[in-house]
């Protein structure tokens, strides 16, 4: 079953689940029982040959879910060891009820230990829930180390313990799970930033109330759905000609950095820009013409720059531009042009030095570039990517693409996330390809935010296709180019 495409804050889910249960006439303990059943079902399906489960319970409702999963596993004949942080008699509400049901079935509860028993072959993480806001403290921090160092597979309840459900950042330490099952409404922190290192495969259980919850709550984050590309790019008319599909001017490719513009220009043409021009340092013209003869290549001298920026309907600026006086002069000449623009790489360096607001612009920073644009640290950006992207929009306007694991897109009203992509994309030139893709979509008349969303998705899907064929390690930016054409045709 595909995951939902909408995400919420932890506060929304905590408050909303009560109203959703009420709308369905359910007691909250019934939801806990369903959640525990969901954990048991996913764990058994993923590890059908497991025999000895270690269920780690904390002091909140995640611990209650753990007790229910433990009870079901025991009833199925599994050996189950339950570790409880603190005194289980101090549990409250539904979690306490779940604990007593476990005891009624003859279950035992043990204090946490500093090593996982050798014969345990599956760990259930029910230590900390979505309400965690500060750093993980002892003894749970030590227990997280014990679990992570055990080499045993982990199924996390709702969220890996120690991961922020709102930001995806690690609050000191976090469980590295192979599977995570979340309930009722997916939390926005599960799909961006550091979360990709800890969540493993994400599963969802609506517990019979998710439809009511969705009706009652507005998502803070939406995934870019695969069908979105088809919605953006309509079939071409039989009598169409190249002039109908846009004129893109790409500017960059300084001495020694011509490859960036070659990647950018090839991506732009493969996505379907009707006419593409590239302005580069004169040293790179021959190479550009050899690699991409379909691209009208010229030097970036002042007259050529003026002619092409008047001719085009969209500008892509930055790949290989350089940070010297030539790059600065070009940036200053181009940034005030009243046309849609995509800025990346060295163009963002100059933008950080001369901040301005432009609602016809897409900027595509990675975390280090975002930090420079905000005058902050990379750590601060990655601690709360949602806050960072909102701050970038407030300062620079337009559409912001904050790259990284779980790339975010924000247009001032709605935040989107890309669920595609893989670690092989962490290599030089990927951003240059993305700039070309988005510029081509803008050239074809796709609106700003839609072009950013579709471009990010196509870019990631192309990388996933190649990684599926040949693996993630050694994936090159140029490996994406052969896949682009098929992804924008249907």
From TrEMBL:
Gene3D superfamilies, per the entry = 3.40.1190.20, YjeF N-terminal domain
Question: Which annotated residues bind AMP?
Answer: 403-407, 431
- Which InterPro entries is this protein grouped with? Carbohydrate_kinase_pred_CS, CARKD, Nnr, Ribokinase-like, YjeF_N_dom, YjeF_N_dom_sf
Name the needed cofactors: Mg(2+); K(+)
Q: Has the keyword Secreted been applied to this entry?
A: no
Output the superkingdom of the source species.
Answer: Bacteria
Details of cofactor binding = Binds 1 potassium ion per subunit.
Gene Ontology terms: biological process:
metabolite repair; nicotinamide nucleotide metabolic process
Q: Which family does it belong to?
A: Belongs to the NnrD/CARKD family. In the C-terminal section; belongs to the NnrD/CARKD family.
User: What is the protein's given name?
Assistant: Bifunctional NAD(P)H-hydrate repair enzyme
């Amino acid at each position: 079953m595909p995951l939902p495409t909408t995400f919420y804050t932890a506060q929304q889910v905590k408050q909303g689940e009560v109203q959703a249960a009420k709308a369905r006439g359910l007691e909250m303990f019934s939801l806990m029982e369903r959640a525990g059943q969901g954990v048991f079902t996913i764990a058994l399906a993923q590890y059908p040959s497991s025999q000895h489960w270690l269920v780690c319970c904390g002091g909140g409702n995640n611990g209650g879910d753990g007790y229910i999963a433990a009870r079901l596993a025991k009833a199925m004949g599994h050996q189950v060891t339950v570790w409880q942080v603190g005194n289980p008699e101090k549990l409250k509400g539904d979690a306490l009820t779940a604990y007593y049901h476990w005891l009624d079935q003859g279950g035992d509860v043990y204090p946490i230990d500093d090593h996982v028993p050798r014969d345990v072959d599956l760990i259930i993480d029910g230590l900390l829930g979505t309400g965690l806001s500060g750093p993980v403290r002892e003894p749970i921090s030590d227990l997280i180390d014990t679990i992570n160092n055990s080499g045993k597979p982990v199924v996390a309840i709702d969220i890996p313990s120690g991961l922020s459900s709102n930001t995806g950042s690690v609050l000191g330490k976090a469980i590295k799970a192979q599977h995570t099952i979340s309930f009722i409404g997916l939390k926005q922190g599960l799909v961006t930033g550091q979360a990709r290192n800890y969540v493993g495969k994400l599963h969802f259980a609506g517990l019979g109330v998710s439809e009511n919850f969705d009706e009652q709550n507005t998502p803070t984050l939406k995934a870019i759905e695969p069908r979105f590309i088809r919605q953006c790019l309509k079939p071409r008319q039989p009598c169409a000609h190249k002039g109908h599909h846009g004129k893109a001017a790409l500017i960059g490719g300084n001495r020694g950095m011509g490859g960036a513009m070659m990647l950018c220009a090839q991506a732009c043409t493969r996505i379907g820009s009707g006419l593409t021009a590239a302005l580069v340092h004169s040293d790179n013209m021959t190479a550009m013409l050899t690699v991409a003869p379909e691209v009208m290549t010229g030097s970036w001298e002042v007259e050529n720059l003026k002619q092409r920026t008047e001719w085009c309907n969209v500008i892509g600026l930055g790949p290989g531009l350089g940070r010297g006086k030539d790059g600065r002069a070009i940036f200053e000449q181009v940034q005030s042009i009243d046309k849609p623009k995509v800025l990346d790489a060295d163009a963002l360096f100059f933008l950080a030095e001369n901040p301005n607001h432009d609602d016809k612009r897409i900027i595509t920073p990675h975390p280090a570039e975002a930090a420079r644009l905000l005058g902050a640290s990379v750590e601060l950006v990655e601690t709360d990517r949602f806050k960072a992207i909102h701050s970038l929009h407030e300062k620079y306007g337009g559409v912001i693409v904050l790259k990284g694991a779980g790339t975010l897109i924000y247009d001032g009203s709605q935040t989107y996330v890309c669920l595609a992509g893989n670690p092989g994309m962490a290599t030089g030139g990927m951003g240059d390809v993305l700039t070309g893709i988005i510029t081509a979509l803008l050239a074809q008349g796709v609106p700003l935010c839609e072009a950013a969303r579709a471009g990010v998705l196509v870019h990631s899907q192309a990388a996933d296709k190649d990684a599926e064929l040949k693996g993630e390690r050694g994936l090159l930016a140029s490996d994406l180019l052969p896949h682009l054409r098929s992804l924008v045709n249907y």
